[in-house]
Amino acid sequence: MLWTEIKNQYLMYRCYRRRLVRLPYPPLSVWIEPTNICNLRCIMCSRSFPPQREEGFMDDGLFRTIIDRFGGAVPEISLHFAGEPMMHPRLDELIAAAAQNGIRVVIHTNATLLSEELSRRIITAGIHTLVISFDALTPSQYESMRIGASYEKTLRNIRTFLEVKKSSSRKNLFGKSRPFTTI
Questions:
Q1: Are 69 and 118 spatial neighbours (Cβ–Cβ below 8 Å)?
Q2: Would you call 156 helix, strand, or coil by DSSP?
Q3: What is the mean pLDDT of each run of 10 residues along the chain (183 residues)?
Q4: How far apart are CA 77 and CA 71, in angstroms?
Q5: Other CB atoms within 10 A of residue 86 CB
Q6: What is the pTM of this model?
Q7: Are 92 and 124 in contact (CB under 8 A)?
Q8: R_g over Cα of the chain
């Protein structure tokens, strides 16, 4: 763990114990939604129920402004919320912008769009952690929960990603104590 993070976690604990409302440290993590578009209609997702917001992609300029402001102050960003981040056409560029500012990038995905090419692009860009939502044991369970997904295709995508990751020559941006992780 980086010294700044240890200090911030200690401060966070102290502030919590003192019931402070105004905190003397920057956020430990920031969540940014690069897109609110999703290719699935999962039964557990709020996107499956009205009302819906207007769909779209975050403007690259806005993203870079946010990253520039947080660079050095926030150790981690999560690029996801209600949409599927893999749908953003320049996701690798967003990851690279954050990684170049020393910010770890975490993405949650349904992995249905995680092709070999996209896997290479996001790994090369500097993604730190990829969390894959693959939450059923059988194809029928999976496909009844994740409407529009194929169990076999998604499983293939996950295996392909792991093969690409394993064969990647990318050096870890955050040293040996901060390995690239897949959850």
A1: no
A2: helix
A3: 71 86 79 94 81 87 92 88 94 95 94 97 96 94 96 98 88 45 51
A4: 10
A5: 23
A6: 0.82
A7: yes
A8: 18
Measure Cα distances from 124 to 1, 23, 57, 159, 169 in Å.
23, 36, 22, 18, 9
In the prediction, which pLDDT does 129 show?
95
Partners of 42 in the β-ladder: 146
The CA-CA-CA angle for residues 160, 94, 11, to 5°, reads 105
User: Quick one: three-class SS letters along the chain?
Assistant: CCHHHHHHHHHHHHHHHHCCCCCCCCCCCEEECCECCCCCEECCCHHHCCCCCCCCECCHHHHHHHHHHHCCCCCEEEECCCCCHHHCCCHHHHHHHHHHCCCEEEEEECCCCCCHHHHHHHHHHCCCEEEECCCCCCHHHHHHHEECCCHHHHHHHHHHHHHHHHHCCCCCCCCCCCCCEEC
Distance of CA 90 to the CA centre of its chain: 14
Residue whose entry in the numeric block shows the structure tokens 């293939």: 156
Local structure of 96: helix, strand or coil? helix
Query: Which amino acid is it at 176?
Result: K
Residues contacting 175, CB < 8 A, separation 6+ = none
Residue closest to 26 by CA, chosen among 73, 76, 77:
73
Q: Are strands 41-42 and 146-147 parallel, antiparallel or unpaired?
A: antiparallel
* pLDDT of the residue at 159: 97
